[in-house]
Amino acid sequence: MDTAMAMGISIFMTDDRLKLHQWLSPAFPIGGFGYSQGLEEPMATGIIRTAADVEAWVTAILCRGSARTDAIILAHARAGADCQMLSDLILSYASCAERETELMEQGRAFCALIGGITGAELPLLPYPVAVGVATASLNLATQEVLALFLHGSAAQMISAATRFLPLGQTEAQAMLTRLAPIINALAAEAATAPLDSIGTFTPGADMAAMRHETLEVRIFRT
């Protein structure tokens, strides 16, 4: 491979990496700031009070909860699996009505934005499926896509906790930094995991998400 060709591939990958960071950035306007993924309920009821409580909760969601499911579904969507099948599957795993709403509303916003940016017409898809389809054309490893996606999921929950609890920005960022090895390991696993390996065991989080729907005063949509 000559130098010019190598530079061309490097520039192409850099462009794709910048697109990925843009699309999965918390600043990408799909409304992610409005969701806590059920975390508001245990904070409102006093079950979660400290930074250590938040970190344990986020770690459980990443390793044994909905975040792992989302990552595996995304990987299969990126590999070209049937989108309707994946959409039906991920919605069947939704623990409550508002979890399904979160998946679909963020997916709707993401598809609309990607269509406006790239001109590609994406059907309405749950968010992880939509991300998988949209990133399929990027010359990047699936593990890298999943790592950034999971990092965004963790950051979303930590941001919700930062706004609700007396949790400072420094501690929030330190927490996200500590989660990096877990996120990278999970991304590596999810990149090649078969669909029949999907399974969750976060009953406390699932019940909190259900109870959140009936909170009289809420800051977040989930």
- Counting DSSP H or I runs of 4 or more residues, the number of helices is 11
Q: What helical percentage do the residues reach?
A: 55-70%
CATH architecture: Orthogonal Bundle
Name of the top-level CATH class: Mainly Alpha
Please mark out the parts with pLDDT under 50 across 5 or more consecutive residues, or reply none: 4-9
Termini separation (Å)?
51 Å
Number of domains: 1
Q: And the CATH topology?
A: Urease accessory protein UreF
Q: Classify the beta-strand content into a percent band.
A: under 5%
Q: What sequence of helices (H) and strands (E) makes up the elements?
A: HHHHHHHHHHH
Q: Pairing-aware structural class of the strands and helices?
A: mainly alpha
Question: Shape from CA axes?
Answer: globular
Question: How big is the Rg?
Answer: 18 Å
Number of E-state strands: 0
* Average predicted local confidence, pLDDT: 90
Largest sheet data: none
What does this protein structure show overall?
The chain is 67% helix and 0% strand. The chain starts with a helix and ends in a 10-residue tail after the last helix. It is built from eleven helices and no strands. The protein is mainly alpha-helical and 222 residues long. It has one domain: Orthogonal Bundle (Urease accessory protein UreF), CATH 1.10.4190.10.
